[in-house]
Backbone:
């Protein structure tokens, strides 16, 4: 029992990030309680708001089960495809070769590290949520910007709350595995490097964002662009208040369990060199310039001495 429990506890270098995720979860609870359980004037809306808050605490369980069963299998395989396969390198990784970034001093995750994970996950969640909410509003004829307006709207938002983490399962764990294992690509031609996770994330985020904006701005019945934009932002706010808790729970479990598993499996799946990124090239360039300046000064001094000796000889 103790060994099983230990598997779901963070390592020493992940504890600060784990505690940071707990703080974010508390903030998410406060936000949802205020905007869904307290502020609505109608008592029925407040009741439905409390139902959302209660269910949001458990809505991530299906996605976390999928992560537990399948992410350790496919995530390392996807990472290997991106960094070693010629097709994966062409489509996503890029560069001449990939390597693990070496850090001279072992870094520990800080209290603020989960915020970057939260923001990335939030963008993806909101993009999918806005797209699906707008499409469902057309099919079922409801106002997606008012999640507690009726039980039908509430049920549809709860379904989205459960489905969206599962839909994003192929994207998020792989992105975080690439990011936290510090896999970079190096281009020989341009002498530049970059995080492969950034390119992988950008490929999907751009599609998600375009789909969300197209759904939010192009599928409304409002006549003016401003009305469509206002409706779009209301849907975004509704999605944010509902999805805040599930997002923070996923981040919390990532730092308590999935991060250490993914890092170990990723390092085992790819045989990459460990290299250090530094500014040695710039320093050498500076030294060369300084050396060239010194040689120029020396040559000038020598020329002046020769000219001076010549003039003295001529005078004699």
Residues:
């Amino acid at each position: 029992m103790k060994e099983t429990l230990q598997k779901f506890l963070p390592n020493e270098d992940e504890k600060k990030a784990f505690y940071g995720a707990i703080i974010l979860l508390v903030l998410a609870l406060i936000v949802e309680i205020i905007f869904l359980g307290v502020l609505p004037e109608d008592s029925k809306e407040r009741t439905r708001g409390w139902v959302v808050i209660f269910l949001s605490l458990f809505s991530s369980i299906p996605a976390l089960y999928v992560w537990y069963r399948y992410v350790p299998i496919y995530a390392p395989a996807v990472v290997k495809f991106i960094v070693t396969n010629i097709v994966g390198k062409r489509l996503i990784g890029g560069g001449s070769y990939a390597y693990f970034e070496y850090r001279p001093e072992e870094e520990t995750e800080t209290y603020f590290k989960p915020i970057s994970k939260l923001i990335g996950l939030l963008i993806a969640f909101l993009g999918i949520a806005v797209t699906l909410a707008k499409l469902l509003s057309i099919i079922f004829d409801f106002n997606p910007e008012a999640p507690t307006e009726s039980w039908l709207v509430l049920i549809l938002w709860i379904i989205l709350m459960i489905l969206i983490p599962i839909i994003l399962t192929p994207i998020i764990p792989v992105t975080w595995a690439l990011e936290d294992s510090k896999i970079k690509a190096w281009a020989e031609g341009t002498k530049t490097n970059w995080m492969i996770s950034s390119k992988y994330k950008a490929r999907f985020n751009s599609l998600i964002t375009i789909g969300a904006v197209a759904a939010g701005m192009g599928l409304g019945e409002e006549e003016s662009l401003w009305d469509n934009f206002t409706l779009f932002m209301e849907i975004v706010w509704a999605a944010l208040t509902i999805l805040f808790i599930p997002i923070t729970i996923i981040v919390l479990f990532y730092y308590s369990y999935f991060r250490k598993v993914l890092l170990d499996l990723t390092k085992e799946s790819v045989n990459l060199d460990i290299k250090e990124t530094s500014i040695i090239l710039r320093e050498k360039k500076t030294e060369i310039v300084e050396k060239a300046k010194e040689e120029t000064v020396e040559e000038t001094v020598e020329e002046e001495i020769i000219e001076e000796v010549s003039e003295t000889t001529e005078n004699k």
